[in-house]
Amino acid sequence: MLLGRQRRAAFSLIELTVTLLILVAVAGLVIPQFATTSQAAERSATLVNMCKLRDILIGTPDRPGYLQDMQSMSVGANATGIPDFMHDLLIQPAAAVSFNVDSKLGWRGPYVANATGHFTAGLHASFAPYGLPNAPAVRDGWGNPIVLQWPNTVDPLNVRAKYVRLISAGAPSLPGANGKVSVIETLDSVLLPEDLTPDKRGNDIVVFLRVSDPYAPDVFSKAGP
After folding, report:
1. What pTM was computed for the model?
2. Residue 21 host element (H or E)
3. Could you count the other beta carbons within 10 Å of the beta carbon of residue 167?
4. Structural domain range at position 71
5. CA–CA distances in Å: residue 94 to residues 74, 88, 97, 98, 203
6. Which of 5, 7, 195, 203 could be stapled to 170 by a disulfide with Cβ–Cβ 3.0 to 4.6 Å?
């Protein structure tokens, strides 16, 4: 009887080993699928937030935005009513006057609530032109700042202002010291959205503020005011 118990115990151990191997194999199939689903969810959430940011910047038929508030004021290097940086939505620019209820002009921020992100030293160098160290920022689905990119071309200021875009660097794609990091790949040397082809954007998410974009999802491709 003792021998029979020993054999049964050994058999149970084999069964357990086989079961564990099966679970490991199934996990190998499920985890990549879960990761893919998670990336898609983060991308979708980021797109929605970027669309909301565009409406805050440009305004909607129902609610004025930063552009309407600041349109007649010379603030920053790009004095067009569109801010130089995203943090201008969160911190009043030094040259901006506060909102006047009579004229309905002036800075009436912060325009975004609960913006907990910051430009930190851990960001890839590609973020450097788009924010100041430790400045507050609106984060994308991967925890990186959503930036405002002005085209760096020889065109007049009013032309370049028409093609300003919001950019999320997207999912981490470049090996870094502490794991993969996100990189802004969208070229600021390109003006028009039709010339800013997908190969020039990498895995970035791009939302133009004021013009239609042939490479954007339909919900984000409508022209702004």
Report:
1. 0.78
2. helix 2-58
3. 25
4. 44-220
5. 11, 10, 8, 10, 35
6. 203
Q: Give the number of domains in the chain.
A: 1
Question: Which two tokens mark 97?
Answer: 């006057």
3-state secondary structure of 210: coil
Q: What is the dihedral of CA 196, 162, 79, 84, to 10 degrees?
A: -40
Do the domain assignments include residue 37?
no
> Could you report the per-residue pLDDT of 102-121, keeping only the tens digit for each?
777 888 889 888 788 888 87
Residue 204 confidence class, pLDDT cut points 50, 70, 90: very high
Q: Is residue 206 part of a domain?
A: yes
Cα distances (Å, whole numbers) of residue 157 to 53, 70, 136, 147, 191: 22, 16, 26, 19, 12
The helix (H) or strand (E) run that includes residue 5 is helix 2-58
Take residue 94 and report the two structure tokens written for it: 């030094």
Q: What is the pLDDT of residues 179-193, one digit of tens each?
A: 788 999 999 999 999
> Among 2-16, 132-146, 152-166, which stretch is predicted with the lowest mean pLDDT?
2-16
35 part of a folded domain: no
Task: Place 60 in a pLDDT band, splitting at 50, 70 and 90.
Answer: confident
Q: In this structure, what token pair is assigned to residue 219?
A: 């919900």
22 occurs within a structural domain:
no
What single-letter amino acid sits at 21?
A: L
Query: Which of 79, 88, 192, 176 is CA-nearest to residue 131?
Result: 88
Number of Cβ within 10 Å of residue 21's Cβ equals: 10
Is residue 69 within 8 A of residue 99, CB to CB? The reply is yes
